[in-house]
Amino acid sequence: MAGNYLEFQFIIEPVQPASEILIAELGYLGFESFVENDNGITAYIPVEEYEDDLLANVHILQSEEFEINFNVNEIERLNWNEEWEKNFTPIQVDEHCSVRAPFHPKTDVEFDIIIEPKMSFGTGHHATTHMMIQLILKNDWENKSVLDMGCGTGVLAILAAMKGATPVDAIDIDNWCYLNTLENISRNDCEHINVEEGGAELLEGRKYDMILANINRNILLRDLPVYEKCLNEQGNIFLSGFYKRDLPVIEKACKDLGLDFVENIERNDWIAAKFSR
Length: 277
Ligand SMILES: C[S@@+](CC[C@H](N)C(=O)[O-])C[C@H]1O[C@@H](n2cnc3c(N)ncnc32)[C@H](O)[C@@H]1O
What we know:
Layout: E1 5-13, H1 18-28, E2 33-37, E3 40-46, E4 67-75, H2 77-87, E5 91-93, E6 97-100, E7 111-114, H3 127-138, E8 146-149, H4 155-162, E9 168-172, H5 175-187, E10 194-197, E11 208-214, H6 217-229, E12 231-243, H7 247-256, E13 260-267, E14 270-276
Parallel strand pairs: 6-7, 8-9, 8-11, 9-10, 11-12
Antiparallel strand pairs: 1-3, 1-4, 2-3, 5-6, 12-14, 13-14
Helix pairs in contact: 3-4, 6-7
The structure holds S-adenosylmethionine (SAM).
Subcellular location: Cytoplasm
Catalytic activity: L-lysyl-[protein] + 3 S-adenosyl-L-methionine = N(6),N(6),N(6)-trimethyl-L-lysyl-[protein] + 3 S-adenosyl-L-homocysteine + 3 H(+)
GO molecular function, one term: protein methyltransferase activity
């Protein structure tokens, strides 16, 4: 059943702050999506990424301060889409950009992005996507070459392209995201974005003015040296997918590679940060 997800329903007592800690720990271990509810959280991980003793590394499950129980089901990706269609509301980021589904009415903003995420990450609902959109809105992309690494739905690449970036490469390691980005670039008339499936191994010899990477702490720390090699002089790199407490380690990794911290945004304890050469 490759391609399916495991859906973990965690019942947590008391719900906060344990939910937040649990989401952070599961995020490090490769869980991809989280839905918070009154009783706890539901968390999703691809079946192929789950190993039997994975939850043994989740410290909060061993904590005596909280009572946490869970049950797990295997689900098909398509069920997620139905859930998403039921629950998805358009997102407005600042006054210039909205992210909506094809079935929502057109919005009257400068950048009206249409996304059908299915199982891919990147609707603008998550703090990290929201902040990356804010950083893109604040910067000049006209005629800049751009890499969107870990493109998910392609939302960041699409916005950069709408703001004049060219050429734009959007890369994701996940086949579903690759296919979903192809669909979304077509929906937004951004077919000139080049979409590829893979990871840092694809980047050998490439050069970009701007790099966007909203992935997670560990992958960023591992792949930053590869991204840095791809950055043109005076280029900028925008990173997210990590918590506020990890900003110092990300900042140090960038500094060691000759990248200076420019600014960061914070939302719900997550960070999006800009670095430049
Ligand atoms: C947090 S999502 C971000 C999606 C989108 N860019 C956004 O901002 O909403 C991270 C994405 O990175 C992809 N990913 C994970 N590891 C990766 C890697 N080593 N190289 C490229 N993409 C990766 C995942 O499949 C996922 O789509």
